[in-house]
Amino acid sequence: SSLPTPPQAYADKFLSQSIPCVICDVAPLDDALSSLKNKYPSMSGKIHGVKCDVSSSEDVNNLASFAKEKLGTVTHWINNAGVNGGRRALTEVPDSQVELVVRVNLLGVLLCSKKAIELMSSQPSGGCLFNTVGSGVKGGGTPGYACYGSTKRGLPQLTASLNDEIQKGVQGYDKKKTPGEVKVYSLSPGMVFTKLLLEDSTPELRKFPFGVLAAQPEEVASDLVPKILNPGPAGSSIEFLGTDKILTKFFERFVLQKKSEYIADDGSVIRFPGEEYDSEGVRKLY
Hints:
The structure is a single chain. By secondary structure, the protein is an alpha/beta fold. The chain is 44% helix and 10% strand. The protein has helices at residues 7-16, 30-39, 57-71, 95-121, 146-153, 155-168, 195-198, 203-213, 217-229, 243-255, and strands spanning 21-25, 47-51, 76-79, 127-132, 182-188, 237-239. Strand 1, helix 2 and strand 2 form a beta-alpha-beta unit. The longest helix has 27 residues, at 95-121.
């Protein structure tokens, strides 16, 4: 289990545009923060990190308070945490893993969305909230990832519900007036070479679709951050792998016979000199 796109990759691109940010994770962030501060010394006081279990309302409340304290105004909130639960049939997934996936991927998004809307709507400038989607979001089957796919399938519905509540209110109740308005979006990073993607993968999966469609976190963040900063009307879907990009990648691989930069012919992850990788071929970012 890991994150669809490591928060450090997003933070890197925000900091490159002199935009302060807060990152959070259940894992220690010391290395990521040190690396980012060293890379952007003029922004060293503008990057902050806090430990947060998104399925804990106490942790989420603390995250919101921490972000408000450090940033003053929170303009963009990205619900990014996610776990896949392991690639196995649902009948073989331990109950504890089923509960973990739902707690992080769905309960976590609900708790974070609730707090983010409360926080950003209290600001005259409002804000933008992004719910990260993944495999299963369009309703197709995700064999081996039934828990993950079903939690992601629910997020577009949540995004639509939240936008309706914010813009129209709830029938039978007075619409609450707030200083600012929050707009909610779907954020789709596609396939990213992280532990979330590579965990329990097979050579066949790594050759296709990963070797054709997957991208490195830095590439995904570079593409998405400008779109996040200018997301358009509420409810829009912000995507890395749009139809044009998918067709281009298919053309390059299957017509031009272009080989993957990251997956070898035998399905193993190509390891580059000077980089650190774990046993599953996940590259260490910092």
